[in-house]
Structures are given as structure tokens and as C-alpha cells.
Specification:
Layout lengths: L1 H6 L3 H14 L2 H25 L5 H20 L1 H6 L5 H11 L3 H14 L1
Helix pairs in contact: 3-4, 4-7
């Protein structure tokens, strides 16, 4: 987005690139991107297992149970998931003031996402 902003002269293009860059660097967006970064590989595996032509009920049951186990581990270690990602605690403190969302609110929301899975 920065290259677009530097190379183009059209103000509309520059403004749109700037807006996209701000969205991509938004603390809340990065938080959720990190959360889903941890869960989506497990979703892909489960999807592939459920789409297998020769899957029987036992294999499907085992695949779902393995998925639930992985999601439970992620839910239990949600703070570690955040710490190892893009958004660190000090960024959450800054984010709390700027967008009025606390780390606890984001954590609770992330746990609720995993309860729905």
C-alpha cells in the first residue's frame, strides 16, 4: 500500500491505499487475524477428512473429536496464542485506549468464538 501511495498521483487511489493500510494495521483486526490463524489449519484438516469419499462414521467421529480437542487446547491457551502472534500485551494496552476494547473483552470474545466451534 505504501508503494501505491508513493507511485500514484491520483488522489483517490492514494486515499484508498491509505485506508486499506490503516485497516490492515488495525489492532483489533490483527488480534482476530492471529486468533483465526491458530484455528483455521484445524478447520482445513477437518474439512478434508469430512470430504473424503471413503470416510466412514468412525473416521468422521474421530476427526470431529480430534478437532474438538485441538480447539479446546487453543481455548485453554488463548493468552499464549495472542502472545505468540502479532499483538503483544503492550499493544493491547495502547489499543484499549484507542479503540475502547480491553484485553479481557477481546479474550472473552475469542473464547466465545471457540465455544461456538
Amino acid at each position: 500500500m505504501q508503494i501505491i501511495q508513493e507511485r500514484f498521483t491520483n488522489s483517490k487511489v492514494i486515499n484508498q491505499a491509505s485506508a486499506i493500510e490503516r485497516l490492515l494495521n488495525d489492532d483489533t483486526f490483527l488480534y482476530w487475524l492471529n486468533i483465526f490463524h491458530h484455528v483455521m489449519p484445524h478447520v482445513d484438516i477437518l474439512y478434508d477428512q469430512l470430504q473424503a469419499r471413503k470416510a466412514d462414521s468412525t473416521q468422521i467421529k474421530n476427526a470431529v473429536e480430534a478437532f474438538e480437542t485441538c480447539i479446546t487446547k487453543i481455548r485453554q491457551n488463548i493468552d499464549e496464542c495472542v502472545e505468540t502472534g502479532h499483538l503483544k500485551n503492550e499493544d493491547l494496552e495502547h489499543s484499549r485506549k484507542r479503540i475502547r476494547l480491553s484485553q479481557d473483552n477481546l479474550r472473552v470474545a475469542a473464547i466465545e468464538v471457540y465455544f461456538c466451534v
